[in-house]
Structure formats: C-alpha cells, structure tokens
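QUALITY CONTROL LOG
STEP: pairwise intake check
CHECKER ROLE: data steward
CRITERIA: each record must contain a sequence immediately followed by its structure tokens, with no blank fields

ENTRY 1 OF 2
RESULT FIELD BELOW
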Amino acid sequence: VQLNAVKPGSLFEQIGIQSGDTITQFNGIQITSPEESQQLMRELSEAKQFNVVVQAADGSQRTLTYELEE
C-alpha cells in the first residue's frame, strides 16, 4: 500500500510514515493485493497496537510500532 499524501497530525504521520512510503507488512502479514490493503486500512483504524514494515521511495525499509495510549 503506497501512501502518497500523509496528512499532518494523522496516525500515519504520528508513527513516522511519510508520503511515498509503501506499507509492505502489517503485524507480520505481507500485503500483496488490493483486498489485503483494504483490510489493512480497516485494521489500522481499529487497532490499539500494531507493527508495520514500510519501504521508503529510496528502497530502504524500516519497522514502525504503534501502541495506543489509554
């Protein structure tokens, strides 16, 4: 899932995702199809904790972790 316009203040920006990054894994699950990307977006909006692997436009990869503070 490539993100082209990360909004300031959004969850994506808060965890360190930048415009142009591609999410390749969500909680250890490889994202390879449009159906999986739709499920990813639903789960991201509902999850209290998750790990994502993102690939930057330059090809570098990084793992980002998010945990909702209660």
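ENTRY 2 OF 2
RESULT FIELD BELOW
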Amino acid sequence: SGISFPSFWLGLLMIGVFSVDLGWLPTGGYGTWQHFVMPSIALGLGVAAVMARFTRSAFIEISREDYVRTARAKGVFERLVVVRHALSNAMLPVVTVIGLEFAFLIGGLVVTEQVFNLNGIGRLLVQAVQNQDNVLAQALVMLVVLVFVVVNLVVDVLYAWLDPRIRYS
C-alpha cells in the first residue's frame, strides 16, 4: 500500500483524518515539529516501502548463497551471519536503488510542499515557472542536478566501502 499511494493523495488523506477529523496535527505551515510529521510521512512512505521490498528480496537472494550456508554450518552465530555475511552483501543493490529513489523524493517534494503549504525549493520552482522567471528556474534545476550528482557520487563511494572488491581506476 505504501508504493501504491502517490504522496499528494496520502497527504490529503492524512490531512483529512489527522487534522480535520481527529485534530491531532496541524494541516500545514511552519512552527513546531508537529507541522513536519505528515509531510515527512507522505513523502517518505513510498520510498520506505520500495526500500523494504528491495532489501527483503536482496536479503533472501543472498541468504541462499554458499558462503552464508557455510557460515551457518560452521556454527557462526546467526546474528553474525546475517549482519556480516548476508546483509552487507545484500546492501549493494539497495544502495543503487536509494540513489535512484532520491530523484523521486525531489520530484515528490514539489507536490508535497503544495499540499502542506510549505515554503521550500519545490514551491519556489513552481512560482518561478508561473512567473516566467527563467533565471531562477534554471538555477533551481541546476541546484537539484548538483544535489543528484553528489548523491550518485556518495553511492559510488559506498559501493567501494561495502564491497572492497570494487575498485575504480
């Protein structure tokens, strides 16, 4: 269900339930930490669901490998087998997906800021396009591109850290 809900629909649904019906959280804007609960959940739920599914499938695939079965046969504690052997090797494809999902977070940020009435880069970009401020729109797009390139660089560095066999020449 986390994958199937778009962030704006989940945001509107949460506003209706938690703000209007129950009165637990504010509908939007700035102020206390409570103002950021619903936007964070609306933006992060889809990505968290994708990460959970992908981590589970990678972990199941790695758990069937010979070196994991050998470690279990040697009597290594199950926690060590999971953390040192299986999870560390299962994280390589997960790190790739994290880098790709970051682009979807940036795209969802524009819509989520509109739904929850937050001022941020997404709303500024929408206003720049509406006002035909091309210089500001181009600068914001370049900023997003720069952040995305840095995230991909971090993903490449994490590859080498997670798997020492990977070396870049």
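INTAKE CHECK: passed for both entries
DESCRIPTIVE NOTE, ENTRY 2: The mean pLDDT is 83.
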